[in-house]
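Morning. Coffee machine broken again, so started the prediction first thing and wrote up yesterday's gels while waiting. Chain of 232 residues, entered below exactly as on the submission form.
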Amino acid sequence: MCFIMFVDEITLQTLLSEGQKMDSMGFIGLWKIVVVRNVPYLDMRRVGKIPKFLTHRLFPSARYSIWLDSKLRLQHDPYLILEYFLWRRGHEYAISNHYDRHCVWEEVAQNKKLNKYNHTVIDQQFAFYQSDGLKRFDQSDRNKLLPSYVPEGSFIVRAHTPMSNLFSCLWFNEVDHWTPRDQLSFAYTYFKLRRTNPDKNFHLNMFKDCERRSIAKLFGHRAEDNRNISAQ
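Came back before lunch.
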């Protein structure tokens, strides 16, 4: 089992200045530190989507992975997490629903209210999704395919199966093409995967956010530094 932490040079120097010590093998505690250089985007939020969604490309020999945002600290044995979220019921991808919002319409409004990204780009992305068939989330629909259309993407448990890998690649394509706000594109990506692969099952486990909070302890994000150049 490997624990990998992706950081840039400034984050590494911050960790070291706070008393974290990296040994001669490049570890801080259990974590192998990978310093990311020559990044393909100016917006560091978008850079972070590369290890988040393309884990199977970075670690092609790995059969499973658990993604944690920097704001979380894992509280349980990773093997028990794999057993509970994947193996117990034959799932290949596990992610929690958002703690407050379930409809993409609500998520769009919240992103614009908080100025999370350029409003024009958000509107263009949302208009395209609607034109390609995205509908409002209906909690009363007994035949709904997802318990929520908005995920809490800070904690993802994956088996590196063909369909799981394809979903991750398609989701990455959306944050690469549009905004890095991945909660906006989750539902569209899921339905696109189902539509374009009608004969293949994708075993997604969208679990309750209270389960995520029991697994990983929340810490606040560090203040965003001015190196992040967004489209605002």
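The longest helix spans residues 162-177. Going to sketch it on the whiteboard this afternoon.
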